[in-house]
Amino acid sequence: MRNRSLADLDRVVTLGGGHGLGRVMSALSSLGSRLTGIVTTTDNGGSTGRIRQSEGGIAWGDTRNCLNQLIAQPSIAAAMFEYRFTGRGELAGHNLGNLMLKALDNLSVRPLDAINLIRNILKVDALLIPMSEHAVDLQAVTAAGTTVDGEMAVDQLTVLPTHLRLTPEVPATREALHAIATADLILIGPGSFLTSLMPLLLLSDLSQALRRTQVPLIYIDNLGRELSPAAANLSLIQKLALMEQAIGRANRIDALLIGPTRDASGVTDRMIIQRPLAAMDEPHHHDRQLLRTALDDALQSLG
C-alpha cells in the first residue's frame, strides 16, 4: 500500500455513531460506493428512543443522521427525510426519517434493505450498514455493582464503569463482517467514546473480524471535550487500551489522528498524526478537507 492514497483504495470502512461517522463519510463521499459505514444501533434517546419504547426494534437515529450528512443534492425527498415535527402533539420532536425507516421495519423489510431503499431515494452512493439487525441496548456496571441500562444513562455516568456490555448478546450484520474482511482501510471515530464507538467493539464477531484483518486501522479522536463526564476524563492511552482490550489484540490500532492540543504522552509503537483539524465554523467538528488530507498522509506513511 506504499504511496497509495484514499482515492486508490477499493474499499474503505469506517465505524461509529451518527454525528462523527456522518462527518467522516461526508469527507470521503467522493469514494462513492467504495465507502462503507458501519453504524451503532444502541441509541435510546430522543425520537429514536420514543420509537423503540413504543414499537421496539433497532435504533435508527444514527443511521438517519449519517444519511442526512451524505445528501449531496437538495430535493423534496431529502427535505421529507430531514423533517422534524414541531408543536405539542404526539408527533412533536419526531423525525420523519426515523418514522420512515421504522415503517419499513414494520413492513418486515430487512433493516439493511430499508436503508438501501432510502439511500436510493436520496441518491446516496456510500453504503451504510447497521452494526446489528437485532434490537440491542448498552448496559454498564459501576464499581458499586449497580447496573445502568441504556445509552442515555451510560452517558450520564460520572465515573468510568467497571464493565460495559450489550444486552442481549446479538450477532453483527453479516455484511458488516464481510466489509471488514475485505477492507483496504478501516477507520473508527470520532464520536462519543462509551456510547458510539465501544458498542461496535462489544459485538464479539465484529471485534473478531477487526482482530483478524491485517489492514491499517486508524482511530480519529474527538476535537472537543465529550459531554459524558466519564468519557471526558479518559486519556488517549486509556481509550486505546479499552478499544484494544475489546478487540482482543494489542497494538491493533496502527495510527491516530488527533488535534494539536491533545496530550499523546505514553502512546508508543504507533503513528500519531497531530495537527489542526477543526472546522472554522464549528471547532468541535472536523474540517472535511483537513481530515481527508490527514488520512491520506497517514495512509501513505503507514505503507
Task: Please identify the top-level CATH class.
Answer: Alpha Beta
How many helices in DSSP terms? Answer: 13
- Share in β-strands: 5-15%
Rounded to the nearest angstrom, the radius of gyration is 18 Å
Question: Helix- and strand-based class?
Answer: alpha/beta
What overall form do the CA principal axes indicate?
A: globular
Counted beta strands? 10
What's the CATH architecture? 3-Layer(aba) Sandwich
What portion of residues is helical? Answer: 40-55%
CATH superfamily: CofD-like domains
User: How far is the N terminus from the C terminus?
Assistant: 5 Å
| Major beta sheet, strand line-up | 3-2-1-7-8-9-10
Q: Mean pLDDT, nearest integer?
A: 95
CATH-defined fold name: Rossmann fold
Domain count: 1
What are the segments in which pLDDT stays under 50 over at least 5 consecutive residues? none
Can you describe this structure?
- Helix 1 runs parallel beside helix 3 and helix 1 packs across helix 13 (288-302).
- The N and C termini lie close together (5 Å).
- The protein has a single domain (6-42, 125-302), classed as Rossmann fold, CATH 3.40.50.
- It has 13 helices and ten strands.
- The protein is of the alpha/beta class and 303 residues long.
